[in-house]
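Researcher: We plan to redesign the surface later, but first we want a full-length starting point. Tokens attached.
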């Protein structure tokens, strides 16, 4: 047999083995909803953007209902600079003025979302974009921060307090893939809309949506391999952790990981089956984490009855 023929057969066998390994996970999660937070380097690298769209279409054809939630920090920063809109940061967080909020809405819903919907729909008529404003899907209250022990007003920044799932449910029932941008109408303490629109953290919004939808998984793409017990020691990567263990670790994590791991913790505490932190810098890493026993990132699972990687 010619050498290239043997190579082709070997490659085909490895592909078949990968499909067989994925089969139990496909059988387990077919018919369930997974919420995937799209962010990090996967949003700005063309190869990774295309790979992410392929992964989302694969999930749909595997019988899973993917719901994508996205932010767009780098794109927002670039547009603010282009328009000459200065940004003030307090405690490491951007103060969002009305002028900046106009840019946030324009970039998230008008550019980032349209690009992603277009990539997914290059494989077929699958995806529909929507905002947290649509049908008041995401409802938020205004929040600030504490700097040097004093409260600081961050402007039009909020956190999700309620999720209405009817719009997303309707799209899923129609066989579509919702792509949700994370801006939300503001509601006051009495639950009435104020007319303002707030910028909300995409990680925590994805966690809230996963909880409201009763998702089987929350998957958050980021720019690290996963959660480390002793960052920056790469050998301390945690492949699986329980919600109780994460609760103890959370206050000591790096600031950039706190909203991501906090979203995972809240989701699992609220009944989402598992939450995953996945390195979005590697093509198709999301599929490896979901459909292989070893996985490639960090999964958060309920403390009981199981917490092993092969029990995903």
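Model: Full-length starting sequence:
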């Amino acid at each position: 047999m010619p050498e290239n023929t043997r190579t082709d057969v070997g490659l085909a066998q490895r592909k078949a083995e990968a499909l067989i390994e994925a089969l139990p996970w496909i059988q387990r999660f077919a018919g369930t909803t997974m919420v995937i937070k799209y962010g990090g380097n996967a949003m700005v690298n063309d190869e990774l953007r295309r790979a992410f769209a392929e992964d989302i279409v694969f999930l749909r054809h595997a019988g899973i209902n993917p719901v994508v939630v996205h932010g767009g920090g780098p794109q927002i920063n670039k547009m603010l600079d282009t328009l000459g809109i200065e940004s003030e940061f307090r405690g490491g967080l951007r103060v969002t003025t009305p002028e900046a909020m106009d840019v946030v809405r324009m970039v998230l819903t008008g550019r980032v979302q349209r690009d992603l919907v277009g990539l997914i729909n290059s494989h077929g008529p699958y995806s529909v974009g929507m905002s947290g404003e649509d049908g008041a899907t995401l409802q938020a209250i205004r929040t600030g921060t504490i700097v040097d022990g004093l409260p600081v007003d961050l402007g039009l920044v909020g956190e999700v307090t309620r999720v209405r799932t009817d719009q997303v449910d309707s799209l899923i029932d129609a066989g579509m893939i919702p792509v949700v941008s994370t801006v939300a109408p503001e509601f006051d303490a009495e639950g009435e809309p104020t007319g303002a629109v707030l910028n909300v953290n995409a990680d925590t919004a994805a966690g809230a949506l996963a909880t409201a939808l009763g998702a089987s998984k929350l998957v958050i793409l980021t720019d690290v391999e996963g959660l480390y017990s002793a960052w920056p020691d790469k050998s301390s990567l945690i492949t699986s952790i329980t919600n109780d263990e994460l609760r103890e670790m959370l206050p000591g994590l790096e600031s950039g990981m706190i909203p991501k791991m906090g979203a995972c913790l809240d989701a699992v505490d609220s009944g989402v089956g598992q939450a995953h932190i996945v390195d979005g810098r590697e093509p198709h890493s999301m599929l490896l984490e979901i459909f292989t026993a070893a996985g490639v990132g960090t999964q958060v699972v309920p403390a009981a009855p199981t917490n092993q990687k092969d029990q995903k």
